[in-house]
TrEMBL record:
<protein>
    <submittedName>
        <fullName>GNAT family N-acetyltransferase</fullName>
        <ecNumber>2.3.1.-</ecNumber>
    </submittedName>
</protein>
<keyword id="KW-0012">Acyltransferase</keyword>
<dbReference type="Pfam" id="PF18014">
    <property type="entry name" value="Acetyltransf_18"/>
</dbReference>
<dbReference type="InterPro" id="IPR016181">
    <property type="entry name" value="Acyl_CoA_acyltransferase"/>
</dbReference>
<dbReference type="Pfam" id="PF00583">
    <property type="entry name" value="Acetyltransf_1"/>
</dbReference>
<feature type="domain" description="N-acetyltransferase">
    <location>
        <begin position="5"/>
        <end position="137"/>
    </location>
</feature>
<dbReference type="GO" id="GO:0016746">
    <property type="term" value="F:acyltransferase activity"/>
</dbReference>
<dbReference type="InterPro" id="IPR041496">
    <property type="entry name" value="YitH/HolE_GNAT"/>
</dbReference>
<keyword id="KW-0808">Transferase</keyword>
<dbReference type="InterPro" id="IPR000182">
    <property type="entry name" value="GNAT_dom"/>
</dbReference>
<dbReference type="InterPro" id="IPR052729">
    <property type="entry name" value="Acyl/Acetyltrans_Enzymes"/>
</dbReference>
Length: 282
């Protein structure tokens, strides 16, 4: 290992570099994900660098005092096999000591994660394709106003393991290529979702809903934002209603990951998770 190598917090502009690495790995992040990622936990992003040159990365974003999520674990191809990844991993993991840590692992890495103390919780399947139809619903979803996120934040905290107000305030803010919608019945929120422009097509996530009818209303409102481009949704395999909605839109399985946890797994109500927020931050 080069004697000038060190692991440190990311500096301005380096998260954008790491997201470009993620694009090259085929992970297809959103075009402006860095804005919301940093709001989630500004202290949760690290690079391993040789002098001033970043060669690898990891994010360990902390939510509350009991949960964290690991992602963006990448070593640039030119620097693999030299021990840099292990050092980056150890530094990142240490920052979440005492918390349950989650991650979404590709098949090739799941055994390595198990050796590091992570246990499988559930399979996530990425569905993708050009939507050939929109689902029917008895409800109607509406765009979310940036100034009216309070109810949405409360709804999210009942599904995601910990509150994440700062992240969602940035994630759901209306920007070009990004839209958030909410569905209500009797003035009560029954679900919400966000679609965002990615390097390839669009991703919908989160897609949280009380039931399939509410999720269908959200999809009917959000999917047209893609304007005929490819749409992707990361769906817990246990949620058969979510899979049926995706297949009804003409989407097909294109990728799989395993949600894994080190520490007690949170009691996530997967029947309400019709689409994961992001594989990088949970």
């Amino acid at each position: 290992m080069n004697s000038e190598f060190a692991v440190r917090s990311m500096r301005p502009g380096e998260l954008e570099l790491v997201l470009e690495w993620a694009r090259q790995e085929g992970w297809n992040p959103g075009l402006d994900d860095s804005l919301a990622f940093l709001e989630a936990d500004p202290t949760g992003f690290f690079v391993g660098a040789i002098g001033e040159v970043p060669v690898g990365s990891i994010s360990v974003v902390k939510y509350g005092d009991s949960f964290a999520f690991l992602g963006l674990y990448i070593v640039h191809p030119d620097f693999r096999g030299k021990g840099y990844g292990k050092a980056i991993w150890q530094t990142g993991i240490a920052t979440a000591e005492g918390r349950t840590i989650g991650l979404d692992g590709v098949a090739a890495q799941q055994q390595n994660y198990r050796r590091a103390g992570f246990e499988p919780a559930y399979l996530t399947i990425r569905y993708g394709g050009v939507a050939s139809a929109l689902p029917a619903s008895t409800l109607v979803a509406h765009p979310v106003l940036d100034s009216r996120l309070e109810g949405l934040l409360r709804y999210d905290s009942a599904i995601f393991p910990q509150p994440r107000e700062a992240f969602l305030a940035a994630w759901c803010t209306g920007r070009k290529g990004r839209r958030t919608a909410v569905v209500r019945k009797s003035h009560k929120i029954r679900g919400y979702g966000t679609i965002r422009r990615c390097y390839e097509g669009y991703k919908i996530g989160p897609l949280f809903a009380n039931d399939a009818d509410s999720a269908a209303a959200l999809l009917a409102e959000l999917a047209p934002e893609a304007k005929g481009a490819t749409v992707f949704i990361d769906i817990p395999a246990e949620n058969r209603e979510a899979i049926a909605l995706a297949e009804g839109m003409g989407l097909q399985p294109v990728f799989e990951t395993m949600r894994m946890y080190r520490g007690p797994a949170p009691a996530t109500p997967l029947k309400h998770v019709f689409g994961v927020t992001t594989l990088e931050l949970g």
